[in-house]
Amino acid sequence: MLSDRVYQQLRLGLMSGEFGPGERVSARPLAAQLGVSLTPVREALQRLLADGALTARAHASPTVPLFGRAELMEVARLRALIEGELAAAAAARITPNQLKRLEQLDAVISRAYQQNDRKADMAGLHRFSFAVYEAAGRPLWLEIASRLWMRTGPYLNLLYPDFMNAARKRAPEEQLRPRLIHALATQDGAEARAIATNGILGPFTYVAGLLDPGRPGS
Question: In a 10 Å sphere around its CB, with 0-12 CB exposed, 13-18 middle and 19+ buried, how is residue 13 labelled?
Fold first, then answer.
């Protein structure tokens, strides 16, 4: 169905930071952008509202939720638990072809950063992460991770430029993606779990520090 395709496109947009915190997501501009009628867009937005990925007040367009510090960190900790387990599981069963794909995606992300292409950088981070998690072979866990990513993806925008610039200046042996690839290649599940967990909690602790303690706008 067309509404399913629109829903998947919007899900991906939320996970990869195409929408920012508090951004209004209006049906008519989206329909024009996607080249579809209003009906499938409205149906997709209703599904995202049911998922908790968007919020809306009466007679207003849906918006990306605004979190306070505690709310954001609660979701980040849930992500760390789920994604740490997925990374550990992936270490036990990842294939050479999947490892090669991760190396390719790592190179794509590095090029995007060098070209100052934030959109491609964030999209690459999403693809890299889920290429790891798909290798775990746990579809239910993967779906839970996707739903949590929809809630936190918009906040990736707040990592730029300061946090990401500092992260890119780390020594090669401190870069998280190459370390994770090495842990997966050597089937070190404990190390893969630790790297995945730190790769979530570190950035989102930084982002939480930028937010008001309570829910903005409440």
Answer: middle
pLDDT single digits (tens) 59-82: 788 999 999 999 999 999 999 999
Q: What is the CA radius of gyration of the chain?
A: 18
CA distance 52 to 13: 15
d(CA 54, CA 173): 38
The tokens of 79 are what?
């992500």
Which is nearest to 168 in space by CA: 111, 103, 86? 111
Q: What does DSSP assign to residue 34?
A: H
Q: Cα separation of 14 and 149, whole Å?
A: 8
Neighbour tally for 63: CB within 10 Å? 18
Question: Which pair of tokens denotes residue 170?
Answer: 């780390």
* Backbone phi and psi for residue 24, each to the nearest 5 degrees, phi listed first: -80, 135
- Confidence (pTM): 0.91
Contact 80, 92 (CB under 8 A): no
Token output for 192: 């893969």
pLDDT in tens, 144-154: 999 999 999 99
| Averaged pLDDT of the chain | 93
H or E segment at 115? none
Cis peptide before 62 (omega within 30 of 0): no
